[in-house]
Amino acid sequence: MQILRVPLEQIEKRRVGEIDAKIADIEARGKMVEEVQTRATAITNLLDDINVNLEMLGEQRAVIDHVGEKLARLDFMVQEAQNTLRALQREREVAERIEQGIKSLRKHSGESKLA
Asked: What is d(CA 13, CA 51) in angstroms, rounded to the nearest whole number?
């Protein structure tokens, strides 16, 4: 019986050693899983931040597009105003020439009456 006990104790010790090694391996893998989960959470948070930034950029782009449209309309209005101003300046020049012509005619007709 004692002869059987020694091999059984050795088998038991060996089994306990194997079980301890497996437990250590499982615990190490559990730590690796925790690290992976931590990294996955960090990556998820980073992706969420990127999505928020992309949304903000989209909104800012919409604002910039809107401002660009307003700027284009304003530029068109400025061009129209400049064209109107040029036309008014030409009309003013014509009116001044007409006025000078009228004054000249009055002056010549006044001189004709005196002579």
From this structure: 56
| The model's pTM | 0.52
Which helix (H) or strand (E) segment holds residue 8: the answer is: helix 2-114
Half-sphere CA count of 80, side-chain side, radius 13 A: 6
d(CA 89, CA 54): 51
Residue with tokens 């301890």: 20
Give how far Cα 31 sits from Cα of 21, 28, 65, Å: 15, 5, 50
Q: Tens digits of per-residue pLDDT, 52-89?
A: 999 999 999 999 999 999 999 999 999 999 999 999 99
Q: Which residue has the tokens 């300046």?
A: 89
- Report the pLDDT averaged over residues 11-31: 89
What is the rounded distance in angstroms from the CA atom of residue 28 to the CA atom of residue 23?
Answer: 8
